[in-house]
Inverse folding.
């Protein structure tokens, strides 16, 4: 059973960089065949896709966030990470990591982690 | 403003059949698969329907999906109290919005 777990600071100051890591267990990122995604959900709002990465390092980002987002992968640790720069209060959200399954849907999700941007 | 349009709310009584609509465009629903997610209160979303009308293992057959043109629907039959949740549609998008776009979500209330 694949499991994903987000980790990182729950509080980030405005203008700083938000950094989160997703640790995957029960499956190897380097085995290929899947993309690994970040999605966020603003409080009381809907879902927003941030981007995804393949084990090779290929990435694709939401055009609206592209200038501030970097997603990277560390296959030796079976982890992938999110960095979002120059954050504002508008980036306060629950951040989820998830796997894009063979049929294209997000079939495994982490439990999510709330990141608050505040001074 | 979400790229895919869903009604903000829906409701039904136990045993009833309810449908949730999802409207898009030629660049997303019109040319790609539709996915549906269920988000129970305080939990992460769960994949409910993939590739328009396929159910992952473990999802009851009370849940069904369909697609026609640039719109899609999720139907829930034999409504149960535990179905009370937020439901999101999603699709790949071939335009600059993409590749993944979501609907704004529909809150389903079981009366």
């Amino acid at each position: 059973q694949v499991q994903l777990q987000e980790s990182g600071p729950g509080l980030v100051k405005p203008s700083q960089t938000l950094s989160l890591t997703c640790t995957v267990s029960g499956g190897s990122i380097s085995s290929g065949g899947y993309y690994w995604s970040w999605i966020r959900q603003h409080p009381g709002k809907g879902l927003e896709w941030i981007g995804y990465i393949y084990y090779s390092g290929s990435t694709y980002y939401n055009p609206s966030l592209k200038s501030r987002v970097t997603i990277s992968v560390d296959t030796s640790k079976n982890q992938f990470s999110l960095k979002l720069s120059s954050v504002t209060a508008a980036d306060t959200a629950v951040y989820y990591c998830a796997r894009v399954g063979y049929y294209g849907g997000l079939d495994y999700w982490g439990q999510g982690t709330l990141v608050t941007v505040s001074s | 403003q979400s790229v895919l349009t869903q009604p903000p709310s829906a409701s039904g009584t136990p045993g009833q059949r309810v449908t949730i609509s999802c409207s898009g465009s030629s660049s997303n629903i019109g040319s790609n698969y539709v996915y549906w997610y269920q988000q129970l209160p305080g939990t992460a979303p769960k994949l409910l329907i993939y590739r328009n009308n396929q159910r992952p293992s473990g999802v009851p057959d009370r849940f069904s999906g369909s697609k026609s043109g640039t719109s899609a629907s999720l139907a829930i039959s034999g409504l149960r109290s535990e179905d009370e949740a937020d439901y999101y549609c999603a699709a790949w998008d071939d335009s600059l919005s993409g590749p993944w776009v979501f609907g704004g979500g529909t809150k389903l209330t079981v009366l």
Remarks:
- The first strand of chain B starts at residue 9 and ends at 12.
